[in-house]
Amino acid sequence: MNIRLLILTLFFSFIVSAVIALEPIPDKLVVLTFDDSVKSHFTHVRPILKKYGFGATFFITEGFDFETNKEHYMTWDEIVQLHRDGFEIGNHTKDHMKIKPEKPEALAQLKEQLEAINLRCKEHGIPRPTSFAYPGNGIDPAAVPILKEQGIVFARRGGAPEYPYKDGQGFAYEPGLDHPLLIPSACDARPFWKLSDFKQGADQAEFGRIAVLQFHGVPDLAHPWVHTPVERFEEYMSYLAKNGFKVIAMRDLALYVDPEIIPNVPNFVIEDRKKSIASGTSRDDFRKPRDEEEFKYW
Question: Which numeric CATH code is attached to 26-254+267-295?
């Protein structure tokens, strides 16, 4: 081989390797997500996130009465502005179609539902979404190959089936154990929550775990059971900022996680968590290094 060609080959191999190298997952890495195209995402959430310099993903649907109720839901011009601000626009299906095993007809419609939002994004100059949130936090593992085929890289579910839906509890995402198209929510904010409830979700972001935090409206006048008061949301975001959390959008997981690495049995970690809840035992069987010297060998 020509020596010059050899040098160029080695050089470009190095460049490609550098580009695809993943960053180590730091403690206090959280993903902020907002569902349902709620008006307050633009009027209240947007300025607070911009104040702190946080990333976030807004999952867009045209379900409910999105088309006619502009008191409670964003316009596409406002969604476009979120994109221009640097936030990620994700797919939440056109009609907020819940996906669950007992509704097999939903799977047959999933591609069409995704494409409808993809088309609306294209019409408004927004990139084709690569992140998805399961509407109503309903999940069906049979949706995974459809999502992958449609170019979805990361998909967020709720805290169920490990925890019941009503209280909004959940587990942090564990790359390698959780399927990247079945990522759990570490918390799903509720109107009765205090800072301690939010911290229970966010503070799980350690030991290689990533806390994916789910919100709906701030406030949410159309869906009061998932409403978050503005002052409470400000308190949550202040906590993240003051305590050194790194706050990213769903798409930014690709900096830390290889989405092609999937568990052989996606349900294993879910069942393991359910067992730990039932028995009241911790799944943590590790500790932090005692000092910098020990960390070198960790």
Answer: 3.20.20.370
Return the structure tokens found at 29.
């890495």
- Listed residue (261, 70, 53) closest to 154, CA to CA: 261
Please say if the pLDDT value at position 280 is more than 90. yes
* 159 in Cβ contact with 165 (< 8 Å): yes
Confidence of residue 29 (pLDDT cuts 50, 70, 90): very high
- Give the three-class secondary structure for 201: helix
Percent of the chain with pLDDT over 90: 85
Angle (CA) 133 137 143, round 5°: 65
- Find out whether 77 and 54 touch, Cβ atoms under 8 Å: no
**What are the structure tokens assigned to 109, written together?**
């419609």
pLDDT score, position 294: 54
Contact 41, 218 (CB under 8 A): yes
